[in-house]
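Hi all, long-time lurker, first post. I run a small reading group and we've been trying to get comfortable going from sequence to structure in the token notation. Rather than ask abstract questions, I figured I'd post a concrete chain and ask someone more experienced to write out its structure so we can walk through it together at our next meeting. Sequence below, copied exactly:
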Amino acid sequence: MAAYLQMRQGADIPLKKQLPWLAAWGFTCGATGWVDMFLSSGSNLEIARSMSILRMILQPLSGMLLLRFGYGVLKYLSPLPAWAVFIPGILIVPIGYIVTYAATTFVTPSPIEIPIEIWSRYLLYLPGSVLAGIGLLRQWDVQKKQGFNDVSKLMLGAGLAFLFEALVVGFIVPAAPYSPASYYNYDRVVHNAFLGTAQQSLGTFGLDYERVLETTGLPIQFWRLLSAFTLTFFVVRGLDVFDTMRKRQLKQLQEERDLAQQAVVRAQIRARHTAESWTVALVNISRQISQLESFDDILIYIVSVTQKLFQSDFVGVGLMGEKDTQLMLRYHACDDITEIPRPPLIVDNILILKTLRSNRSYRFPENKGESIDEFIVPCSEIPAQTIVTVPLAMDNRPVGVLWTARCREDSELFSQTDLIWLECIADQIVIAIQHRLMTSQMQSLSIIEERGRIAREMHDGLAQVLGYLNLQVQTLESLLIQGKSENLHKEMSNMRKAIKTAHADVRENILSLRTTLANDKGLLSSIDEYLKEFSIQTGVDGTFYNELSDELRLASIAEVQLVCILQEALANMRKHSQSEKVQVTLTSDIHQGEIFLCMKVVDDGIGFIENQTKRSFGLKTMRERAKSVKGSLIVDSYPGKGTSVICRIPCLAEDKLKNQNVIFSGINFN
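-- Answer (accepted) --
Happy to help. Here is the structure in token form:
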């Protein structure tokens, strides 16, 4: 019953598969014992015959079940040594002899019950108990070597109990007139059919009831009783191995779960560190792009950081040539050395050109065991073992290829995640290319715009003055011929004033050009320098007040436009206001949660009414400049009260300042 219950809820170990045989043997063995008690109770003859027949069936059946259990324990609980394959060949002769000898005993005139019981014990019960005992003892040795002392002790007790059962139950049998039952038996009284021969045999060779009693001081029934109790105790206790194994499996599962959780945590930490490293790299690339660094410096940094992040042996950037007929290797990193090949190398590898033509990303090989076309990296003679290639495309038109390779034979294959990261790097390279083109276009537009402004200034100033002087020269010739010296001196005075004004305009334009393009000096230094130079040239007393508590950051284009607005305002003031003093003040202002930089230009001139002034073109230009950077311009003037020009331009907020490069790159890292 204990074996049956453990079989239903026991742990999944090899012994569990043998429990059905153990449980069946226990039931049949117990049934045999109950039949013996019925036979000993003095039942009527018909019941005794039925019980005797049932016993003849149960006796060999229990022996066969025990033999099957012992065989399974010996063979399946732990692997047998290699020499065990010779055991069947060694035992086949004695086993055949014993079976033949047992068969002859059945023809001997005697009740059939005695040979059935004797040879059931010899041929089934004895080897079954021995096999079970040896198998459990081997399991004791295995568990002991593995350090499981609790399980090994249970196996030891169960194994010894089966060997003891083999001795007192399987080896000592009822007396019979043939060996070995005639030598080792426990019956004092034999069946009447064997009385004469059996008495002689038992008297001469038998280990009978009296001799067992004389030798041990205890009858054989006691030893059978002791064997039964010992076997029952150790088998039931041995079945506790399932609880022990269950606890061990639970402990092992807990340890495996803890290890798995630790592995997951370590993997998450590695993934987070990798993501942080890539994020920092991408942000640094975007920052370099936004700060208008050299295109070559940006690409050199990209290939260098890509090689370090991928821990690869080679990273290359190939761009289309001027005629768009060949792919040229422009930048590469190899063995921690970043170079710009001079002259650029022609890329003719099939894998790279395939990426360029198909405008698709590839990973070679995708799985272990696959082979790739031989690709020799330019800086090494070792062929690449794994490659990732990503196209560089603008408006879905490929303009180049970015690829990285590992050449060591034990190199880890690039993963799909690596491909995604390389595509992010490729996006940054495309942004750098687009930014370079856009910067060139902006520079061209700035040059065109500045040329237009200079042309307007020359048309409004120098060209008109020169035309005026041309007319005045003709007037002077006429006055000279007519001899009107007084009028001649007056016209010459007017000419000197016009020349002086033209000279002032030219010097002002030169100062504006020099100050506007000097962005490396910063906004504050540019304003201060321009105001000082303006004061020296015009004689107007200029004062600069910086009332900013902290440095406010403007976009680069906003700084340029602010300086241009200041120049335009001072130029209008010089030409029209007749002022002697001008004051420039920088302050900050907060409107609807947004920070603005305010520039206020105030003079003490004659003032004007805006819709009646000739300054409309200059005011319009200033307003357009402020609007282009999302700012505003207010002009406050009244005749005799001077003029105030107030320009408000939004600043970059702190969080926007930190993230502007990420936003520019078009990648959301959150």
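A couple of things your group might point at:
Residues 2-80+87-239 form one domain.
Residues 240 and 539 are 109 Å apart (CA to CA).
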